[in-house]
Amino acid sequence: xxxxxxxxxxxxxxxxxxxxxxxxxxxxxxxxxxxxxxxxxxxxxxxxxxxxxxxxxxxxxxxxxxxxxxxxxxxxxxxxxxxxxxxxxxxxxxxxxxxxxxxxxxxxxxxxxxxxxxxxxxxxxxxxxxxxxxxxxxxxxxxxxxxxxxxxxxxxxxxxxxxxxxxxxxxxxxxxxxxxxxxxxxxxxxxxxxxxxxxxxxxxxxxxxxxxxxxxxxxxx
Length: 221
Fold this sequence. Notes:
Blueprint: H1 2-72, H2 76-92, E1 103-104, E2 108-117, E3 122-133, E4 138-145, H3 146-150, E5 156-161, E6 164-175, E7 180-184, E8 195-203, E9 208-216
Antiparallel strand pairs: 1-2, 2-3, 3-4, 4-5, 6-7, 6-8, 8-9
């Protein structure tokens, strides 16, 4: 009986061995799968975070570039307003000064007016010339104070308006004999006209636009 009991116990122990091995392998596989699953989840989370951060950085960069372009973009309308203001101010301050007469053609106009002299460091009488460069499509302004004019010194050149397709000055006067007012394309007479009209065609990239500005001259009356 003792021998039979020993045999049965040995058989039962041997029968349990495969079960123990199977359970250990299963645990190792489960642990390995669990570790692999966590790594994939972490990778997905990192990828999602990187995508969100990249989109945010792109949005900030894109908005910054748009703002920079708007700030630094040259607007033809604003440049035209600045040009007309400067042109009108020079003509309204024009005056009769010995040696600095008033003369004008279709694409060129020169007269005596008040200027800011960098040399004398104050506002004084000087000569201003507006002329159109048809090759570069630019309206230029040339300035010299009275001392620079009499000493034949170089003038200060300033580019006022670009992309100008055409420019024409006209001069308004009164004919005492005919007793009528009319416009002329040139001014080669003594004195000053009653007004100056500037007609220009500005090309802003789509199609040319025409603008007209008339400035009265107070000193002509």
